[in-house]
Amino acid sequence: MKISFRQRCAMCSHLSISSTWLLTLTSLASLSGAITFNSIPDADLDTSQLGRVGIAGDFSGISLYQFEGQTEQPFNTNGSEQLLTRLPNGLFVSLLEADASIQTMCMFQGQVILGGNFTGLGGVQSPGIASFDPNTSTVTPIANLSGQVNSLLCDDAAGKVYVGGSFRTADSTNAITWLSSKSWASLPFAGFNGPVNSITKAPSGHIIFGGSFTGLGNTSTPRTPDGQVINLSTATIEADQGTTTAGFNDPKNVVCKTDGTDGPGNTWLLQDNTPGAWRATFNFGFEPTKLRLWNTHQDGRGTRTWRFTALPINGIMNFTYIDPATNQNLSCTSECPLSNDPSVKFQDFHFVNHIGMNAFRIDVSAWYGNGGGFDGIQLFQDDIFAFAINDFNEPSCANTSTPSTATTTGPWTVTQSGQSNSQYLSAQLSKPVASDAASVVFYPDIRESGEYIIKLYTPGCRQDNTCLSRGQISVSGTLTATGTNRTMDPRILYQTNEFDKYDQLHIGSVDASSSSFRPSITMTPVPGQSQSIPGDNFVMVAQRVGFELLNSTGGLNGLFEYDPSRATVDTSDFSSSAFIKLGSSFSNNSAVTSLVATNDRTYVGGNFTSDDARNIVAIDNSGKTVALDGGLNGEVLSMYLDGNQLFVGGRFNNTRDESTTGLANVAVYDTSNNAWTPLGAGVDGTVTTIVPTTLNLSSSATEDVITLTGDFTHLLAFGSNEAIETSGFAVWVKSQSNWLQNLDEPVPLLAGILSTSLGVSNNQTLYAGSISSQALRANGAATLSNGFGNFPINIQPPVSVSSSSASSLSRRASLANSTQTVAGVVAGAFYESDGKNITVLGGHFTANASNGSTIYNLAFIDGANSNTVTGLGPEVSEDSVFLSLAIQGDNLFAGGRVNGTTAQGSAINGLLSYSLSSQSFGTQPPPLAGDNVVVSSVNVRPNTGDVYVGGSFDRAGSLPCPSVCLFSTGSSQWNRPGFELGGDVNCMMWSSNSVLLAGGNLTINDTAVFLASYDASGAHWSEFSGASELPGPVSALTAANSERNQVWVAGTQSNGSTYLMKYDGSSWRSAGVTLDQTTVVSSLQMFTITGSHESSDLIASNQVLLITGSIGIPGFGTASSAIFNGTTIRPYALTSNVDSTTGSISRIFVQKENFFTSSGGGMPLVFVALIGLAISLGLMVLIVLAGLALDRYRKKREGYIPAPTSMFDRGSGMQRIPPAELLHSLNQGRPGAPHV
Question: Hey, which residues does 949 pair with through a beta bridge?
Fold first, then answer.
């Protein structure tokens, strides 16, 4: 797949990601101009009129959707990985999927060679190794290798790739080369008798192999070949042109008949003088090495010539045999002879070529006497297998006291082979899986003791459509009767391979089977696995185990040096190699896991001990051993050299002499100072891989960081840094000498697995692993102001809740059930009054208070007091879940599944009241009551002190008040708003000062309703206009216009799918978009945008609808929020969690709900009208004032004198005027005034 890219600035978004995470486009340009990415137009949401904006949800990281290919897909926990690269905004993106691990990569003549434990890459069957073309993004299998590749070394100059691992190809085991001619070429020594873990080129130009081997060599045939009998007794046996004579007409007569006796029931005959055929069809595959035939002599009959055809390839096989008459070695193909001498009991024919088949046919072309026939047919092989299905194991006539067999426990059923080698057993187990829920014990027929490779074969999951249901199994074994290594250490293996594979379980001694001892391999499920496998059931499969005898030179111990200029390898030269001599100094059962070469040294890491070093050592150009301060006190699994710093990971906690503390499973060796130093204080578990990458933690330039992957759960405390929980992944920031998780600044979210990396040019890198990355690490809540930012609070999900993408959201068919899985922040609110500036966050989480205590589920951030973080006291249960917040005056009303008791003894159930001004509990509303009380929505009626509460409850205090209840803050009493409503309320909103809308699974007078309207002036509930057209309960709603007489709703239909509809003031209209079945809508909100889009009948060109939750967009996957412009829906924000689940956004909360006001556009009509009215009133006042001024001026001109204003009458003051005279004067006109 080639992804085109139209490069444009990812930072030009009106709501762009912080520049501290964006990597420069130069450093993350397209790979060779071929792997490129389309940018996404900015959303242009206008938040300028909203004040502060917050995002609440269940997530650990969040990003804007900026490039095609960007997803919120969590990292895989089923063992599968991807080939990854980086987007221009720094996020990791998958180029193609592998069904298992990609462990190594190298560049070879412009192609990326990938090796690992996969069987399929990008949907292409390619067991263990494949080629990836970065120019076309195509995968080309490198065929004919079976097994696992652990290490690659590409040598362009030599035109070859050195391949090491646990595999078989051509005539080599565990090591071989792939040539530029696209063919395999065996090395002169044909491989090793154990797996190769690492390959490097030493400064001398010699190739160094490291692994778990003790000698050169290959697999060998047993000393007694053809020892395993192929079971014909359970095959389907048929014949063509067989006789009709009773007792001789059944072709099964000759199966498991080894005495050569003629007669009815013992002999199969053809019709007289007629050629014919005997056929066998099996439910398993095999590679036979020998055919044994007993000729019949019944009534002078017998087979003279025959041929053997392998099916289904329809190939006639070649044989060698000894002529019983001359004792000469002869060969035959289409007309193989069979003796008619009665003294010849049987004849053996050896296959020249070992060909796989699952059926065969023997055609008789000539005969003795009146017709052909047989007294017995038997087939043998060298391969030692034990099948889970006993019908495929050795038959009772195998002439052995210990035939291969298997025992099972659990609900196993037979599954058809499909594209696999054989039928196999499948067990469907309920989750969580118990370790004893099922088991298979394989008992092979080992004829001779020796060194064996033990392999477990697993059929692919594509053919039975169980890829999503498969997981991990545990495999253990008992191999010898006595000795320190009599048992095999348990191995944990994934069964998620798309195509057939085998895993190399063990290389070592195996005792022969006897009456007193049987070697065995036991397979059981790994317990648990609830999170990594979707659905209710876990599927485990069992097919077969194989044992291959080894033939080895010996003389090695984990290290081998190969000179590619020499055509042969002489074991007598071993003593001249510094590497081989170093390996010989290691203790027995040593292993080399990692090799790193520089210009003057080769570093060797693994699990070994010698006189001078332990687990890590180096060899310089002169062949001298460099002890690296004595090494480390535990196994080394991975190394990465950066300049003079060698980063080392594994299982250790100190140096060999215990001189450096803090080296818990990871350490740095300074090659210039010969000293070990810790990374912080290390981690609390095994580090398996170390991979470098880059991050941009400042606005200027990128910097190198080191990633660790392994089996650890905490970054250990050091200095002022507390221990931090993690899921097997950590990032060390070299410039800050600290973990990324400890940095107190905006940083990205990275979680998952990185197994290896490959620089394909100076500034372009490919990665292998499975990574979930988001631009900003933020737990449960984020700010939205010219980009995403962090609230000054440290939030974690509660330990009792495991979020699982959309499962932590609910379709709210049952409010009581939905709150059981809620995690993260669900609601938020902003409060400003009397110098206070408080952000309130509610949900189901824990957080750290500023005083060091733990906050549960409701947190307050006081921005006016140095962002002090506080919470509730012990009055409220830690198990509470807050779903809705509303502020009335200085009081916070918080609803949800809430219960507790205040210090004053007031009971709390469903709703609490909290004073934000005094930061204390006041008088509480009487508790709500019912079977499972949940408050889903709290809304304050505009311009009043009335708080409306909706949810699932029956009473408020002693007042019957189901579904919606009114709490009057003035009287501190509950009131029932109307008597018609019942059911569960999911959401509410005021469409005017007196009309409340409620959505959910409701009833009005016992009639089902999904959207109801309450008229507060008349205290009456009714079905919203046309709401009978809604196909299911409403889960979210929002005003569609500034007048609030139009509304958007989302809900769930009866078939489980999500609908989105708009009421346009007169009728309901569908949005016309299809969402995936998994979609959960948590909230809807209209936004004004700074740009424009093509106008539609549903949404104006300067507006969009923002949908939050877990939105399944066809062809994309899930998005935590999406934008609908009236015609199309596209992702807006993507989230992830650190526990390998997708995140979700519950809602957007704002300081000012001016969603229909634009900073650069016109304002709503209502405001225009109000402003016009104000202007009119102002003009009227001015006219009145002007009239008064003119009247005063006229009076003054006409000689009017103001009346005296003295407060006292001194007797000689103003003459009093009689009322009659005063009234008379009013009736006279003014002097000089005209009369009409």
Answer: 938, 965
Strand order in the sheet with 184-185: 145-155, 160-169, 172-179, 184-185
* Angstrom distance (rounded) from CA 1092 to CA 1104: 9
Residues 475 and 491: beta-carbon distance below 8 Å: yes
In sequence order, the β-bridge partners of residue 387 are: 544
Q: What is the distance between the alpha carbons of residues 453 and 148, in angstroms, rounded to a whole number?
A: 14
Q: What are phi and psi of 1153, to 5 degrees?
A: -90, 60
State whether residue 1231 is helix, strand or coil.
Answer: coil
What whole-number distance in Å separates Cα of residue 227 and Cα of residue 378? 12
The region of weakest confidence among 564-573, 823-832, 1114-1123 is 564-573
Q: Does residue 383 contact residue 249 with C-beta atoms inside 8 Å?
A: no
Please count the CA atoms within 13 angstroms of the CA of 343 that sit on its side-chain side: 2
pTM: 0.83
For the stretch 842-901, pLDDT in tens is 999 999 999 999 999 999 999 999 999 999 989 999 999 999 999 999 999 999 999 999
Cis status, amide bond into 432, omega within 30 of 0 = yes
Half-sphere exposure of 126 (CA within 13 A, CB side): 25
Strand pairing partners for 788?
A: 784
Helix (H, G, I), strand (E, B) or coil at 805: helix
If phi > 0 it is left, if psi is from -120 to 50 it is alpha, else beta; for residue 381 that is beta
Cα gap 922→920, rounded to integer Å: 6
* Cα–Cα distances in angstroms (integers) from residue 292 to residues 229, 242, 254, 329, 381, in the given order: 11, 21, 12, 16, 11
Query: How many Å apart are CA 533 and CA 1, to the nearest integer?
Result: 28
* pLDDT tops 80 at residue 1198: no
pLDDT-based confidence at residue 812 (cuts at 50, 70, 90):
very low
CA distance 690 to 753: 10
DSSP string, 406-448: EEEESSEEEE--TTSSB-EEEEEEESSBPTTS-EEEEE----S
Residue of 443, 382, 390 whose CA lies nearest to 412: 390
pLDDT of 6 reads 30
Distance, in Å, from the CA atom of 822 to the CA atom of 1194, rounded to the nearest integer, reads 78
DSSP-assigned letters across all residues of 647-712: EEEEE-SSBTTS-----SSEEEEETTTTEEEESTT-BSSEEEEEEEEEE--SSS--EEEEEEEEE-
C-alpha span between 648 and 1222 (Å, rounded): 112
- Here the contacts of 991-995 (C-beta below 8 Å, separation 24 or greater) are 991/1039, 991/1044, 991/1045, 991/1047, 992/1044, 992/1045, 993/941, 993/942, 993/943
Query: Closest Cα partner for 201 from 501, 496, 599?
Result: 599
In this structure, the chain runs to a length of 1236
Q: Are 105 and 115 in contact (CB under 8 A)?
A: yes
User: Is 1026 in a helix, a strand, or coil?
Assistant: coil
**Does the pLDDT of residue 573 top 90, yes or no?**
no
pLDDT higher than 70, residue 1220: no
Give the C-alpha separation, 584 to 559, whole Å.
Answer: 8
Give CA angle at 129 (125, 130), nearest 5°.
70
User: Residue 882 has which token pair?
Assistant: 């807050």
Cα–Cα distance, 604 to 559 (Å, whole number): 9
CB atoms closer than 10 angstroms to residue 418: 14
One-letter amino acid for residue 1203 of the chain: A
Mind spelling out the 3-state secondary structure of 957-1001?
CCEECCCEEEEECCCCEEECCCCCEEEEEEEEEECCCCEEEEEEE
